[in-house]
Amino acid sequence: MSGTIEDRIYDLVCPLIESMGATLWGVRYKTSHTRALLQIFIEHDDGVSADLCGDITHVLSPALDAADIIAPAYTLEVSSPGLDRILFTLDQVRDYTDNTVRAELRIPFMGRRKLEGLLLSVSEDGTLVIDDKDQGQMEIAFANVSLLRVVPKFKTNTVPKAAKAHK
């Protein structure tokens, strides 16, 4: 078998998730000294409920155990990618152009491992142009990004002024 653990898991679970009417957003496998965590992020046209996550967990768990891709002890989490979603592929990154993102780099660029700013563009060769809040426009190779997350947008003040006066 070749590819990363995440690639092999993706190939295994994608058809199972799709058979349940959901879409696989991404796979993340993290290990520490004390535990291993497998995160499966899914999307569904009607939203992702706790019931759907539970149903998919019940299907994936025995398939993952039988495939024996991961060392014996790990925790499986199935969830929505959320508002601060991780972007796993260049196609996903392209969909979030003109949004604020946070990037963690494998190799420091201009002395920095972490960036945050507006994602301006993504080239065909995988170069991201990010308008970093501290250093301005930076060109980063997607291959050098270990983690890229969308920074959610929230409305700052949705309470009418008259309602505030009565508090």
Automatic annotation (TrEMBL):
Cited CDD domains: YlxS_C
Cellular compartments per GO CC: cytosol
Positions of the Ribosome maturation factor RimP N-terminal domain: 13-84
Stored InterPro entries: Ribosome_maturation_RimP, RimP_C, RimP_C_sf, RimP_N, RimP_N_sf
Keywords, sorted A to Z: Cytoplasm, Ribosome biogenesis
Domain of life: Bacteria
Pfam families: DUF150_C, RimP_N
This protein's record includes keyword Lipid metabolism: no
SUPFAM superfamilies in UniProt: YhbC-like, C-terminal domain, YhbC-like, N-terminal domain
PANTHER family reported in the protein's UniProt record: RIBOSOME MATURATION FACTOR RIMP
HAMAP family for this protein: RimP
Role noted for this protein: Required for maturation of 30S ribosomal subunits.
The protein's name: Ribosome maturation factor RimP
Organism: Anaerobiospirillum thomasii
Highest classification ranks of the organism: Bacteria, Pseudomonadati, Pseudomonadota, Gammaproteobacteria, Aeromonadales
